[in-house]
Design goal:
The chain is α+β, with helices and mostly antiparallel strands. The chain is built from four helices and eight strands; from the N terminus they run βαβαββαββαββ. Helices cover 28% and strands 32% of the residues. A hairpin with a 3-residue loop joins β3 and β4. The protein is globular, with a radius of gyration of 15 Å.
């Protein structure tokens, strides 16, 4: 079980990512559409928390304020261990500064941050697949490449319980 601080896509960008997921699913490649509880939203995670105090975390992320929408340029695919493939997002100064600020605010609550979301180790990405054997990753890369270059716009943010898909939208985009 984990809690994630996520940026959520605007309608146009969400449709683009979901169309990618649908194409991959039609080819027999599992995506977040069919993963676990099936309630996944297309998102970019600033932080994944392993332990946390819910009230303190909610106060901390609300205190980050609203920095406005964020645009992320996607120029390729990133492959992570265990068959996870994602749209590789640009790590702009603005985005990495926002992410680091969010992580520090969450850490100040006593939350334990997953090591891949530590500032300086974080790779901005939007998940495409999970648990795909290496031999099946080429069609994922091809499907992503067919859509590039791509600019995704994030205009909302939320805390998401990854176990159940429960989402608490935030008043702004940190």
């Amino acid at each position: 079980m984990a809690l994630a601080l996520c940026l959520l896509l605007d309608r146009r960008s969400d449709r683009l990512v979901r169309s990618l997921w649908q194409r991959l699913e039609a080819d027999g490649i599992p995506t977040l559409l069919s993963h676990t509880h099936g309630q996944h939203l297309a998102h970019l995670s600033y932080a994944v928390l392993l332990t946390w105090d819910e009230c303190a975390v909610r106060d901390a992320v609300t205190g980050l304020g609203d920095g406005g929408p964020v645009e992320v340029s996607v120029q390729g695919t990133v492959i992570f261990p265990r068959g996870r493939a994602a749209l590789a997002g640009s790590a702009t100064v603005d985005l990495t500064t926002r992410q680091a600020r969010a992580v520090e605010a969450l850490r100040a609550t006593g939350a334990v941050i997953h090591r891949h979301y530590e500032p300086g180790h974080w790779t901005p990405h939007v998940s495409a697949t999970t648990g795909v054997p290496g031999a099946r990753l080429q069609p994922v890369v091809d499907a992503v490449s067919d859509r590039l270059p791509l600019t995704l716009r994030f205009d909302r943010a939320a805390l998401i319980d990854t176990t159940y898909g429960t989402t608490w939208e935030l008043p702004g985009v940190p």
